[in-house]
From TrEMBL:
Occurrences of domain Plastocyanin-like (ranges): 42-153, 172-333, 432-564
The entry's keywords: Copper, Disulfide bond, Metal-binding, Oxidoreductase, Repeat, Secreted, Signal
Reactions it catalyzes: 4 L-ascorbate + O2 = 4 monodehydro-L-ascorbate radical + 2 H2O
UniProt enzyme class: oxidoreductase
Pfam families referenced in this protein's UniProt entry, alphabetically: Cu-oxidase, Cu-oxidase_2, Cu-oxidase_3
Protein name stated in the entry: L-ascorbate oxidase
UniProt-listed SUPFAM superfamilies: Cupredoxins
Amino acid sequence: MELRARVDMTRCSHRLLCSLFLSAALFGLASAATRRHDWDISYQFTSPDCVRKLAVTINGHTPGPTIRAVQGDTIVVNVKNSLLTENVAIHWHGIRQIGTPWADGTEGVTQCPILPGDTFAYTFIVDRPGTYMYHAHYGMQRSAGLNGMIVVEVAPGAAGDGEREPFRYDGEHIVLLNDWWHRSTYEQAAGLASVPMVWVGEPQSLLINGRGRFVNCSSSPATAASCNVSHPDCAPAVFAVVPGKTYRFRIASVTSLSALNFEIEGHEMTVVEADGHYVKPFVVKNLNIYSGETYSVLITADQDPNRNYWLASNVVSRKPATPTGTAVLAYYGGRRNSPRARPPTPPPAGPAWNDTAYRVRQSLATVAHPAHAVPPPPTSDRTILLLNTQNKIGGQIKWALNNVSFTLPHTPYLVAMKRGLLGAFDQRPPPETYAGAAAFDVYAVQGNPNATTSDAPYRLRFGSVVDVVLQNANMLAANSSETHPWHLHGHDFWVLGHGAGRFDPAVHPAAYNLRDPIMKNTVAVHPFGWTALRFRADNPGVWAFHCHIEAHFFMGMGIVFEEGVERVGELPPEIMGCGKTRGGH
């Protein structure tokens, strides 16, 4: 369906979606187009780090194609699941799905998965310009290769008479950062569910645009037999620049585990966008980026054009056991330079992996651009304080929020709520704070690590303002706490503050940034610290909120919000057919 100035409301089956079409037309986006994609999801043998293994691909490739669109466009992606023994679902990360909550692509929350051999059409509007991503949201498929980027340009005329964006550049590159394992996701998931648990371990390689280099091909006979360092799949990605020009690098991290530090050797980067929102520009030597985040940075090609430079990706926040991921910044026009020449210097090693203060300073420096700041509501109607702990349930190691480890129901929440299937999930309200919050020692190992499981959602009053405070704590092992990037589906939120130690609701809210907080959809909670965010529950549907580390969500680190589900239009029958809707296609 194309977006036009005139919208025939009588022909729309979903009132909210039609209202969105009409609103977009009234705001001057009458030239919006429909962009169609046909994707075949299949396993293929690939060698992204020179080691041959099966990957989940889109039309035979990983990463998948970049979706490019203009603000207000309608995206239609016809997905055929050619995985012979595996379901699939795809999440459009950062796209709010206003009026189309069933297209969010979250198995167990907004849809039943796409069965082997079946086809499903995701249809949604990209309502805001920026840098986004997509990835699998079924089991642990994201780490198997099903991922890619979404780039949404500003609509002509949407920015008025001024500049279309608060910065200018001459060219653009996209950078998709990932981590890569040689073990299959089946092996990883089975290990996480085992007693005793078998951890996924550190990745074998770091990829930039799906390319890397495993440095230890002779580590075992099996690896040596499957490793080919001259394979074209693992040739380093090359980013061409012309001396004197300024370039926008759109960067996304789709990692399954690793927090990363990204650097372009010899070139300062000016941060200008985060998760689709303009940032008050600040300059960095290197950029900390957590799984699920996107940034835009500007660089000027002002170095010696007679040589090339490294793009480098390094693990931070975990003791690294993975070599630096690399690509090449190639200067064109140098008299003594080949575009594919290896840079003459070692790749940048990045900052100290355990320098938490350095990473917190960057988080605090990320605030809204003065001309594009959206003030948050001055107060909230409700505060949910979530203590994030590592626990044990029946001998299994799990993650929990307020001592409850999340499990997905067999019937998607959105379907169950719209159809009145009250027995599909736990109806008891989940806890909004944790026992002993006033005196809890976040630096100590819990005396009682036992927890429970639940799939109960948080029910939010539609239109209400909600504060969520994420509290990090010590894990089961002494003196250990990790960075957790939390992603909210269906919304952007204001990042009100970060702090160290235990959050005190009587003290810390007074220091919230209510003047120019950045809006994001993914935010880091730093070790032994807290992060406060605020959002308005104004998007009818059911939305996941979870740690974006694949293994952590698998182990229970997540919750679900419901808001205004009675306002959601008629559900497409294609999202049904599992759980209590079995046979309901």
